[in-house]
Amino acid sequence: MDELCIVTTGGTIDKLYFDDKSDYQIGAPLIDRMLHKLGVAFRYTVVPLLRKDSLHLTDEDRVAIREAIAAQPARHVLVTHGTDTMVETAQALACLGDRTIVLTGALSPARFRESDAEFNIGTAVGAVQSLPPGVYIAMNGRVWDPKKVRKNVAENRFEAL
């Protein structure tokens, strides 16, 4: 892998909690700070594209994500994304078959001490380097084919169809 392109779209991974409002809002992407802190041994660029909860992503947003990835020279792409519609976005990226694209996110904000964000990002980074071209989802310690996975909202995890 020459360089990893990271496209950020928002989602729980970048949420901030506002105590006085009892509300979450999407903050600035944290992945650059996380990777820098971990001292990763690869080059990467971060393309901060959207700051949306995935429930609010539209078909136009998915087109923008696809176009942003297509415009990048990198053949290895990691997309941070909200978990609720991650599968739909992954399926919308299937036409970019000449690249290895891995979507990941978090079930609790990266700013939280017991977040799954770093674990999921680590899984995604390993996957994007080792898998053949295609689109994948990395969540809960597994790498999934987007056509064969769903989010189980009741259990708050991804599982096979």
Task: Give the SSE layout.
Layout: E1 4-10, E2 15-18, E3 23-26, H1 31-38, E4 44-52, H2 59-70, E5 76-80, H3 86-92, E6 100-104, H4 117-130, E7 134-139, E8 142-144, E9 149-152, E10 157-160
Parallel strand pairs: 1-4, 1-5, 5-6, 6-7
Antiparallel strand pairs: 2-3, 7-8, 9-10
What can you tell me about this protein's structure?
With 161 residues, the protein is an alpha/beta fold. It is globular and about 45 Å long. A hairpin with a 2-residue loop joins strand 7 and strand 8. The protein has one domain (4-160): Rossmann fold (3-Layer(aba) Sandwich). The model has no long low-confidence stretch (mean pLDDT 93). The chain is 25% helix and 32% strand. The longest helix has 14 residues, at 117-130. The strands form 3 sheets. It has a 6-stranded mixed β-sheet, with helices on both faces.
